[in-house]
Amino acid sequence: MKTLGIIPARYASTRFPGKPLIDIYGKSMIQRVYEQACSSPSLDSVVIATDDERIIEEVKRFGGEFALTRTDHQSGTDRCAEVARQRPGFDVVINIQGDEPYIDPVQIDLLSSCFNDPSVKLATLIKKIDTHEELFNQNIPKVVINSRQEAIYFSRHTIPYIRRTTEENWLSEHQFYKHIGIYGYTTAVLLEITRLKPSALELAESLEQLRWVENGYIIQTKVTDMETIAIDTPEDLEKIIRLKGI
Q1: Mean pLDDT score of the chain, rounded to an integer?
Q2: Predicted TM-score (pTM) of this structure
Q3: 167-178: b or e for each residue (b if 16 or more CB lie within 10 Å)?
C-alpha cells in the first residue's frame, strides 16, 4: 500500500492572511508542517498543494515538493483530489492540515494504520473531551461513534444530550469525543466524494464530513490522546510559541 501525504495550503485567510508563510522562530509554518509530515514513516511521499506562487517560492526555498492546483477549490479535500489525479499510483491519501506546525508524526501514523484494514475507505481521528469548555464550545465539532468506532454523526452542538442529569454532570455520565481534523481516504473514494454535491446536513453545520455521512460513506475513527494546535489567528501564533517555549 502506497500512501501520499498532501498538505493543502492557501495564502488567503479571512482571519490570518498569508499564514503559511509566517515565521515561527526561523522557519515558515508551511516548512514546519512539511518537515513534521516527512518524519512519518507511514507516508511514501509528501507534497504541498497550493494555488499561490508565494507559497511555491517558499517551498522551493526549503527544498520541499509541491503541486500547483486550481484557485477555485472549496475545501482542502477538493485540493487533495486534484493532486491525487495528477499523481496516480498511490492507494491512500492523508490530508494534513497546513496550519498545524507541530503536528506529531505519530498521529499521521495512527490515521494511516486504519487502512491496514482493507474494508476502510475513509478515516479520521478523535480525542476524548475532558473539559466543559471543550464540551460546549461550538467551534469544536463533536463526534458520535458506534461500537466499531465508526462515526455516526458530527456536530458543533454537544451530542448526545444527557437527559437524566444536568449539564455540569455530563462528563461524568458519558464519554464525549471531539474531532481532530486530519483525514485519510483511499484514492478511489477521495475522487468519489469530491463529486458529491453539498448536502443539507453539511450546509446546516458547515462540516464537510457530513456530506459523506449523509451519502452513506462509513468513516472509521481512531482515538488519539495527542492534542493538535492549529493557528487560525495571530493570537493563536502567540499561544503556540508560549506553549512550545521556543
Answers
A1: 92
A2: 0.93
A3: eeebbeeeebbb
